[in-house]
Design a protein that fits this description.
Growth Hormone, Chain: A, about 525 residues, globular, mainly alpha
Length: about 525
């Protein structure tokens, strides 16, 4: 359905609803991260601190491809509404949680709804607008990611401080209820007219058993068990075996969850690759630039959290510009190449930072990287959607989002390995034998050496005879930390090069231009 089949006011209302829905889902992670310390303190279970994030990511990633396949069968509107309702149910239950275990379980429900929302939003954009206009509106909707990253930490802190952490979940209810009302009253059915035969239940089951072990391995390795431990290797082996079974099942299925044809079409498969690597590159900065600003430059935790804002502003601007460019000119391949060139330059500039790098320069580097990431984001959805048959719009859109999620999961784990190994190796070489044993132990704890306030408090208790030596070791520890982050960004230059090479092979999908 194109916008010519809907009046302008209804189109505008639906677009607002789509943006509000994506903002609702995108805000959740940033808001919760700010409040998590208060939540753990209230509910107990500090040992499960990371699980509310892990379970949300796990359930969301699994829900995305499953939702896309079901939406193509039962319709995009009911799937979208069920997704929002599931998310709101999970939000309400999270707010009512009495233990950390309950919160973890309810965050899983919320993650399923969040995955359905993310998948459905971009599918509905493809339903609402002609291929020629998809880029423009995809860019507008995509900018909600940047907006969520900017206002999320501030909103999370404000709500937690003045109303309590439970309200970061309850505040989703009115916004979600408004979105459901808008879509129920205004959204067409978007039926393609082609009835599919059956749900690929075997494909769903095998996909779930492929993803769960892999995501658990990448999320927990290095924390709960080692990378070369029996649990980790076993999880990867199960995932590989199930992937082989899933591939065989999909080839035989009449209605596959992830159609094999997608991987044979360079207009679609290269979009998967672009989504994977662009998300991986974005997460390098999200994870380690605040770390650098706080631990090396020495800014406060609040400042280091806000340093992501310039990157998201660059992403917001670039996603809109790129979306407009695709709608008016096309040239998806050229934009993809340009995006990875900019991301590569951004990662290179970030890799040049040292202990003496001023805060303002780090912000400029972030804006450059954000502009590259934002340029790539509309391309993946629009080009893949334009290349897929109309009856598979849901599947192809969810597949792009799925590879984007996988990119963040796998890259986060790889960055953690690189960071941990280089940091431990560097700290082990520091000659600290003149310092008291307690202070030596402190310098081995990255949570302490990256906290300027904690360092100041410890320094105040150090005997004056040791102060000069303490300051020298602390300066060397910051150099080691900077070098470790430097290694992560250098690794990302290689990822940008791989993405660039892949973009060279992107086939531009044909666009049906509007008749004047």
């Amino acid at each position: 359905m194109s916008e010519t089949q809907m009046n302008k006011s209804k189109t505008a209302l639906l677009l607002i609803g789509l943006m509000a829905s994506l903002l609702l889902s995108a805000l959740d992670s940033t808001v919760v991260s700010t409040a998590m310390k208060s939540i753990a303190g209230n509910l107990g279970g500090m040992q499960y601190y990371s699980w509310p994030f892990t379970i949300y990511m796990l359930c969301s990633t699994i829900a995305i491809p499953v939702c896309g396949g079901l939406a193509d069968i039962y319709g995009h509107k009911p799937t979208f509404l069920i997704g929002i309702a599931t998310f709101l149910t999970g939000s309400c239950l999270c707010g009512l949680s009495q233990t950390m275990v309950q919160l973890i379980a309810f965050r899983g429900i919320q993650g399923i709804g969040g995955g359905m929302i993310v998948s459905s939003v971009f599918t509905v954009v493809a339903d609402m607008f002609q291929p020629v206009d998809r880029g423009k509106y995809t860019g507008i909707v995509t900018s909600m990611y940047g907006l969520a990253s900017i206002i999320g930490p501030l909103a999370g802190g404000f709500v937690t401080d003045f109303f309590g952490w439970r309200w970061i979940f309850f505040m989703n209810l009115p916004l979600g209820a408004a979105a459901i009302t808008i879509f129920t009253l205004s959204m067409p059915s978007f039926k393609s007219g082609e009835t599919k035969k059956h749900v690929d239940y075997i494909g769903i089951v095998t996909l779930v058993f492929t993803l769960v072990p892999m995501l658990l391995a990448f999320s927990l390795a290095g924390n709960m068990f080692g990378w070369f431990s029996v649990p980790c290797i076993s999880l990867f082996l199960v995932s590989v075996v199930m992937l082989i079974i899933f591939t065989f099942v999909e080839r035989k299925s009449e209605n596959p969850m992830l159609p094999p044809a997608f991987f044979k079409d360079r207009a679609i498969s290269i979009c998967f690759l672009i989504a994977f690597f662009s998300q991986a590159l974005m997460f390098s900065a999200i994870m380690y630039l605040p770390y650098f600003v706080q631990g090396v430059i020495g800014s406060t935790a609040a400042t280091s959290g806000l340093v992501i804002t310039p990157m998201m502003l660059g992403l917001l601007l670039a996603s809109n510009v790129a979306g407009q460019f695709i709608s008016r000119v096309g040239k998806a391949r050229l934009l993809s190449i340009l995006a990875f060139l900019i991301m590569g330059v951004g990662e290179f500039l970030l890799s040049t930072m040292s202990v003496g790098t001023p805060y303002s320069r780090a912000i400029v580097f972030m804006i450059i990287l954000g502009f590259g990431v934002g340029t790539s984001m509309p391309i993946t959805n629009v080009n893949a959607q334009n290349a897929a048959p109309k009856q598979q719009i849901g599947s192809v859109t969810s597949s792009v989002m799925f590879f984007r999620n996988i990119g963040s999961t796998i890259s986060s784990a790889l960055y953690g390995v690189i960071m941990t190994n280089t940091l431990n190796s560097g700290l082990a070489k520091l000659n600290m034998h003149h310092l008291p044993e307690k202070i030596q132990t402190m310098f081995q704890n990255t949570q302490i050496i990256t906290n300027a306030k904690a360092i100041s408090e410890i320094r105040a208790k150090v005997p004056s005879a040791y102060l000069n030596y303490f300051d020298k070791i602390y300066q060397k520890a910051k150099i080691v930390l900077a070098a470790s982050i430097h290694t992560v960004f250098l690794f990302c230059i290689g990822l940008a090069v791989i993405g660039l090479i892949g973009a060279l092979f992107l086939r531009e999908a044909p666009v049906i231009w509007r008749k004047k």
